[in-house]
Amino acid sequence: MYRDLWENIRRDMPKKGRGTAGALDPLKLPARLQTALLALYGHYEKTFALWREAGIGVPPCFIVVCQNTAISKLVHDFLAGFWQEDADGPRRFTAGRLPLFRNFDEAGAPLARPHTLLIDSEQLESGEILDKGFHAAAADELVRFRREIVERKRDAHAAEHLSDADILREVMNTVGKPGTLGGGVRCVVSVSMLTEGWDANTVTYVFGVRAFGTQLLCEQVIGRALRRQSYDLGPDGLFPVEYADVFGIPFDFTAKPVVAAPQEPRKLTVVKAVSPDRDHLEIRFPRVEGYRTELPREHISATFTADSVLTLTPDLVGPTRVLNSGIVGESADLGLATLAEARPQSIAFRLAARLANTAFRDAGAAPKLHLVPPLKRIAAEWLDTCLQCKGGTSPALLDYDQLAAVACERITAAITLAHADTHPVKAILDPYNPTGSTWHVRFTTTREVFETSADRCHLNAAVLDSGWEGEF
Questions:
Q1: What residues form DSSP beta bridges with 425?
Q2: Tens digits of per-residue pLDDT, 205-225?
Q3: Scanning 107, 162, 175, 288, which has the fewest C-beta atoms within 10 Å of its C-beta?
Q4: Gap between the Cα atoms of 191 and 194, Å rounded
């Protein structure tokens, strides 16, 4: 019944979104749905306690995928609690049925940091998204979020007019990430979750309250729980097993259920820049893509060595001859005969043009066309002395971008070797991101970390990849 839950409750559920469904009572959810929620929540409580005992900075995440906005609102209120208008006028508070997912205290006052999120179109358009106390309780995270918006858009005014809808989406996008707006969220109730690019890696419970017409849809929903908490290999060289508990999704992927006790998750640490306290410790550095020798204008030469040799084989370029035939009828012998007609001088010219446009071109500057003739001479020499073609391959295959790049690397290295002692070597910067900064460092790790000093390092921690690093 819990596996194919929708077929057992669909007759008792709202058929339309809450914009046209009228007043609905969360306490009148079908008994089978309430029992299923309580059953899965009982297991969530155990995992929640296990994570807290292990010192994990974020809670496990429980997601509910609903059929329409009326159902999502009913489920959200059933979990988180709600205020309801009685027939005679006064408002009456009803606490959420699942304590860890409640958004209100015992007196009915909303918590500053909600435990359960409702994400659907009606909620985003309602204007009643976040409680007033949220902005005060999440002041530090909001400052960080606004700073990230400015950095991302390179506009000092980009974060001045953020709406509650923008903040709510950021809360959802940061579920499971310590120190962020969504770091404390325990439950997400949504309708259009499959259309969101959501990569939370703490989802351990998935609850389906919707129709699943195809196995593909089942795979997509379960995929929300397939982001691993850790990609570090275990002692046996394999990933440690991680489990998710799933209700209401009829997915045929295993012969029998696997009963497994909750596993103690590995501690997650967010390595990031500390702002604004350590902004003065920011380090900016060039992002170097490679190096090349500053070439002379009068004469360019190359010193070819054994490392300059490139051998083209069918293993590298693919089959050079195919016999295509049916059971009856004429056969066709398909090969690379047309490539044999390519002139060596044309191949050398195309290699020279590529070298002038890539290896010997300054970022943002026009190609140095005066280098094409000497580069063509060097490319022709490389074709004669260093290119080996075997198994029916041909020099014309260097028109393929991947092979041309390898050939140009060989030629560039030979030119650099010839002039390294007499001409300066120049760094080639990344054309898209020429400058890096410690501001851009933000990632999650399960490895051991070293807590840095507040007066020495812009980052909060350094990953200890080996024992000797820790000693150092």
A1: 293
A2: 999 999 887 877 788 888 888
A3: 107
A4: 8
